[in-house]
Fold:
Amino acid sequence: MSTHIGAAPGQIAPYVLMPGDPYRARWIAETFLEDPVQYNDVRGMLGYTGTYRGVPVSAQGSGMGQPSIGIYAHELFSEYDVRAIVRVGTCGALAESVKVRDVILGQAASTDSSMNRPRFGDVTFAPAADFDLLRFAWEAAQEKLLPAVVGGLFSSDQFYNPNTTIASTLADYGVLGVEMEAAALYTLAAQFSRRALAVCTVSDHLITGEETSAAERQESFEDMMVMALDAVVRLHDEEGQDRG
Ligand code: HPA
Structure:
C-alpha cells in the first residue's frame, strides 16, 4: 500500500478514471465496470478496479482541489505504475459559446495555484493534456454525437473566488471553463511521463448564470463517462496490450 491508498501492488489497473467525489467512484464502478472490487477506503477515498469491454480500469476518488488530486495522482503514477488518468468531473463555464450540459475536454490548464512554483521557480509551466487521450475522447464524442468542446480550463484554488473579474478576463483569452484539479494532474503526468486528460461536464455558467438540474447533471455525467471510457479503450487498443 502507499501512504494514502490501501491497495496491494497489481490491484490498480493501468487506466484510472478519477472523479472528485469518492461516491462517484463507487457509482462508476457499479454502473460501468464488470466485476468491480473495492481496493481502497483509506480516508473514505473509495477506489475500485474492474473491467470495461475487457480492459482493466480503476475508478479512484481524488477529493477536491489540486493538493488532494496531487497526492492521489502522485501515488498512482509512482507506486502503482498507472499509465493514464482521466479526470471525470464538473466545471463552471466561462466562455459564452459553452452551454451547460456540454462536456469540456481540457486541452490545457491555466491556474492560480502556487503548486508549481517550487518546481519551476520563475518559469510558468503550461500543463497540457495527453494528445492521444484528447483525440480519442474527441473522436468518441464525434462518432456518438455527444456534445464535446475542446479548449482550456482554469484550475483554480478558489471555488468561492474573491477576484470577481478573473472569470471574464480568462473568458476573453479563450479559456472555456473553471474547475479545481486539472493543472496539478497534467503536471504530475508530465513529471512521471504518463498520460492524463480532464473531461468535465458543465454544471453551471459563471457568465450567464445558467445552471443544470440534478437530472441534467446525471445525463451529462453519463455522456462524459462514455467519452472517458472510450478514450481509455482506444488508448489500450493502440498501446497493443492484452485484454483482461
Ligand atoms: N468553480 C470551480 N469548480 C467548479 C465550478 C466553479 O464555479 N463549478 C463546477 N466546478
User: Anything to note?
Assistant: The radius of gyration is 17 Å. Residues 116 and 125 are 8 Å apart (CA to CA).
